[in-house]
Amino acid sequence: MKKLTSLLALLMVFCCCSAQQVGNWEKMDSENKGAQLYGFVGSGSDYALAIVVVPTEKGAVGNPPLIRKYNEDFSSYSDFELPRETPMHYNASGFGNHVILNGYNFHDTGPLVTNIYENVIMCLSDEGEIQGNVSIKARDENSRMIDKATLYKSTDGNCLIVVSEESVFIPKPAENRIIHHIIVLNMDFEEIWRDEINFEKEFGKGVDFSKCQFDMTPSGKLLLIAAKVGSAAKKELTKISLCIFDSPGMIAHKAEQTLEYNTLKYKHVLMDDGTLYLCGVTKDLWVGGGNGLNQLFLIKAQTKDNFGITFKDTPLNKDFYNAYPEYSKSLKSHLQEPGKVLLMNDGLLYVSLYGLISEGGTYGYSGDISLIKFGFDGNIQWIKVIKKYDRVGPNNLYFQAFSRGTDAVLFYAGPGKKPEGSKPGPVPVSSPYCLVMAVVKSDGTLAETIVYDRLTDKTLFNLSNLYQVDQDYYIITGLLEKDNVKTEYLRTIEVAE
Description:
The protein has four helices and 36 strands. By secondary structure, the chain is mostly beta strands. The model is unreliable at 1-18 and 417-430 (pLDDT under 50).
C-alpha cells in the first residue's frame, strides 16, 4: 500500500523532525451504495480487510454485513458475504490473516429471550469461508453464558486466548457460581489449551474479572494476572496475583503483590525474554475532587523463574506535583488511568488522555494528554503534557498510540482553536479541530505534526476507526456531508523518519 501522494505538513513544536505522507481521500464505496464501515479487521502487503454494511432501499429488510477486500490503493474492492452460521450478535476483529467473529446465540427467539446459551468464536478467511468454529455452551437450562467471550491476543501475536464467562446454577445450596472457560487457539485456529477456572475458589471473593489479563509466555505457558480490590472497612488489601499454568488446571508458579485499599488500573507488557511489567495507578474508590489517584506503580517479574517480583511506587502527593512545576496544575486535575503503556527500547511510556463526554454522547471535550516515561527499574525518567482542550465529536474523543521501539506514535484531535461560543451541542461543521500526529522519542523530545486540517479537508475524520497496518503505515476514515448526503472516505498515513 505505497501509492501515496504528498501533503505539505505543518511542523508545530519541539525539536525533533518527523516526515509523513498522507494519501488522498478515496471513496470507501465507489459504487455509491452508501456503505458504512464497521471497522478494519486485517491487512496484507497488497490488501486491507474491512467489515461494511450496505443499506437497502427504503422499506427493505436490512442487509447483513460484508467482508470488503480492498486492493493496495483502495481503488477497487471485492465484497464477500458472511456465512449463514454467523452468530446472532457478534463483533468482528482480526487475528493473523483471519477474520474473527465473536458472538453469542440465545436459547430461543422472540421478545422474551433473556438467556444466552452459547458463545461462538468463528474464524473466516478473507473471502468469508469458515476455517474454524469454537462453541462454548451453557451446561444446562438453568445456567447461562454472560455476554460475549473476551478475546486476548498474546504479545507475540501467535495465540488467541478466549475467555468465556458462565453463570452456573448450583441447587444445593441454591446459588449461582461464576465459572470462566479458557481456550487458547494458535494461528491455524487449532485448539492448544482448554481449561476452566473458578476465580473465587482460586483467589477468594472480590476478584474483578474486568481487571484480569491473560497472555502466553515465550515458553508457551498460560499467564494469568488476577486483581482483587481490597476494602479498608474489612482491612483487606488490594492484591495482584500472577500465575503461570504449566498445563490446564496446573499452576506452576504463583506470586502476589499487595497495594493499599484502593481500586487500580494497569496495563501489562511482556518481553521476549519472559520479563513481565505491570504499569498502572491506584485510585480512590470514591472521588470527591481532583483526579482521585494515589500512586503510580511498576511491577517487574520474571515468568521463566519463580517470578521474583520487584515493586516500585511513586506517591502522587505534593512532592510529586512540585517536582514538575510546568505541568503541576494539569497533572493534579487531568492525569488519568493508563490508556496505553508502550514498550520503548529503554523503558515504558505511560499515556493517558483527559476527556469528557456530553450527556447523550453527542460531543465531547478532548483534553490534556499525559506522557510519563518509566525506566525498567520503575523510576520516572521524564514527564510531558500535551496541553489542549478541544470540543470534538464522540468518535474523536480518544487517542491512538503505537510503539515503534525507539519511539512512539500518537494520533489525537487538536489543537485547533475553540469553536466560537460556549453553548453546548453537536460539533459545528466549521469546527477547526485537526488530526495531529506526535512522534515521541525515548529521551522525551516530541514533534507534533498536523496531518489533517478540517477547515481545509472538510471531511470529518473518525479517530476510532484509525487502523495500524504496520509500524509506519495507517488507515483512517472520514465522513463528508453535503446536501444532506453522507459519504464515507478512506485515507492513508505513512510515518517515516
